[in-house]
Amino acid sequence: MSDDVVVDCEDCAFRETVDALGRARLALADHETKTGHSVDWHIGGVDSGVEQAGADAGVCGIPGAENPDTPLLDWQRTDEEE
Length: 82
Fold this sequence. Notes:
Layout: E1 5-9, E2 15-18, H1 21-35, E3 39-43, H2 48-57
Antiparallel strand pairs: 1-2, 1-3
């Protein structure tokens, strides 16, 4: 699996592969602004910590999909909860 980010236009043949998320955002915004097309991106891979954080966060809008035991939420706990 590649770690590159692929920016792909749904309305034309535009396709760009970049090595960083920031560059992908710029390519996406630039193409959408210039053409008005609908552009999407595909991320080949992320670091394991980012992947775990995403898994712990769950699915937005689906209650109970998150991992309540994740260490990422420790900052929200009060002294009474520990």
